[in-house]
Amino acid sequence: xxxxxxxxxxxxxxxxxxxxxxxxxxxxxxxxxxxxxxxxxxxxxxxxxxxxxxxxxxxxxxxxxxxxxxxxxxxxxxxxxxxxxxxxxxxxxxxxxxxxxxxxxxxxxxxxxxxxxxxxxxxxxxxxxxxxxxxxxxxxxxxxxxxxxxxxxxxxxxxxxxxxxxxxxxxxxxxxxxxxxxxxxxxxxxxxxxxxxxxxxxxxxxxxxxxxxxxxxxxxxxxxxxxxxxxxxxxxxxxxxxxxxxxxxxxxxxxxxxxxxxxxxxxxxxxxxxxxxxxxxxxxxxxxxxxxxxxxxxxxxxxxxxxxxxxxxxxxxxxxxxxxxxxxxxxxxxxx
Length: 336
Hints:
By secondary structure, this protein is of the alpha+beta class. The protein folds into two domains: 3-163, no CATH class; 191-317, no CATH class. The chain has ten helices and ten strands. The chain has a four-stranded antiparallel β-sheet with strand order 1-2-3-4. Strands 5-6-9-10 form a four-stranded antiparallel β-sheet. The chain has a two-stranded antiparallel sheet with strand order 7-8. Strand 7 (283-284) and strand 8 (287-288) form a beta hairpin. Helix 1 (3-18) runs antiparallel to helix 5, helix 1 crosses helix 6 and helix 6 (133-148) packs antiparallel against helix 7 (152-190).
């Protein structure tokens, strides 16, 4: 999730866990710090854009390592405020603020290596977009209320209510995802498409309009489903996956990393003598956040000295206008 959401979630969790045991500002401050710390790995340069992508949300997002770190971290905070007699409660609050960060990240589609050091599998439920105001705004309201309320008890209650509401919203996203998954599978079967892999994830900033990607051998199919759609079936557009290019570049380290990290939701591309790979999970046709150039076309593909990120961004004004109308159930084609 975005930095503001993680900071606010950490503050809300810190306030809830500390309760009356310390000043609200202390609980919120250190909860916010703990909620932000895991994302400091973005400042680590692993050598090239592909490695930076697949190695983000790794050790700093693993609950095992965060649990070990939480012990000295909590002891230091408790001692700093002269509250060493409450260090166990500080540990609980800061541990919760630390581990809820990667658990929330795991609900997005990016990929979070929650199992390190035992497995580097990138977990990605994909049931919430990386920025969703309906999740974040209640948390902000609850934290601000708790910090600004003259009645401490009411402030704590407002914060707890905000946490419960945001958590319920996460649950709604999971249920909606399951519903769209069922619609997508029935629609694909009716159209004679055998999906080897199926991705169902919300479009930007909401959980009403969902994007579906189905991998079918040498092709992938993209469709959209609003919870407000009246027609029972979905429409899918078909695109070439670039299987021949994948065979030519099967030994390339960057290609292998993206193929694994994307859980198989990738496509190869060639343009003006440049060959590359795209992660199909983040973005929509034809614009994706993570598109990488990895080789140049000569008599055979020649690997570039280092991969280059060449991700493209959509026309926001046009895209948001389509998003709003499509979310309301209007059957209009996506911008291409």
